[in-house]
From TrEMBL:
Coiled coil: none annotated. It is an enzyme of class 1 (oxidoreductase). This is Putative thiol peroxidase. InterPro entries: Redoxin (IPR013740), Thioredoxin-like_sf (IPR036249), Thioredoxin_domain (IPR013766), TPX (IPR002065), Tpx_CS (IPR018219), Tpx_Peroxidase_subfamily (IPR050455). Pfam families: Redoxin. Keywords: Antioxidant, Disulfide bond, Oxidoreductase, Peroxidase, Redox-active center. It comes from the Bacteria. Its EC number is 1.11.1.-. PROSITE patterns: THIOREDOXIN_2, TPX. It comes from Crateriforma conspicua. One of its GO terms (molecular function) is thioredoxin peroxidase activity. Residues 21-171 form the Thioredoxin domain. SUPFAM superfamilies: Thioredoxin-like.
Length: 171
């Protein structure tokens, strides 16, 4: 399924591929990759047991995505081990690792570069760009979707305060 009219990129209408997530429904399973001791995987099952914030960005190599990742990294540090925090992009895992090292990012980053299943199943793939839309998804400890925010203009930042307020309700 494709959805038009949800987002723009620099004012140009874009199309999102996949169905919109249902708040209250189960989060779709995923397998993402990250550079740890080699190329490792992260699945939805790995995140169950704690509330999870998934910060979704098109590419860490762009200014707005870098700002979003740094801001959530800073804001979420105080919550420590009480939550899972993951930034998802389509950057290669090794590029994500390099970015995090250069910017002192502690939160996990994971990539949807290989199968694009995360983007499709979460309804966040921008058809025209084959990148992920800017979004924030919150899951409870059981993997249920409790909050979604798709940023209407990809070049703008999310509403951090709204997402963080919802996350704090889960802790």
């Amino acid at each position: 399924m494709s959805r038009s009219g949800v987002i723009t990129f620099k004012g140009n209408p874009m199309t999102l591929e996949g169905d919109e997530l249902t708040v209250g429904g189960p989060a779709p399973d995923f397998t993402l990759h990250f550079a740890g001791n080699g190329l490792e995987t992260l699945t939805l099952a790995d995140l169950k047991g704690k509330p999870t914030i998934i910060s979704v960005v098109p590419s860490l190599d762009t200014p707005t995505c870098a700002i979003q990742t740094k801001r959530f990294n800073q804001e979420l540090a105080a919550m420590g081990d009480s939550i899972n925090a993951v930034t998802v992009s389509r950057d290669l895992p090794f590029a994500q690792k390099r970015f995090c090292g250069a910017e002192d990012i502690e939160m996990k980053t994971a990539s949807d570069y290989q199968t694009h299943d995360f983007g499709r199943d979460y309804g966040l793939t921008i058809a025209e760009l084959k990148l992920l839309a800017r979004a924030v998804v919150l899951l409870d400890a059981d993997g249920k979707v409790v909050y979604t925010q798709i940023v209407p203009e990809v070049a703008e930042e999310p509403d951090y305060d709204a997402a963080l307020a919802e996350l704090k309700k889960l802790v």
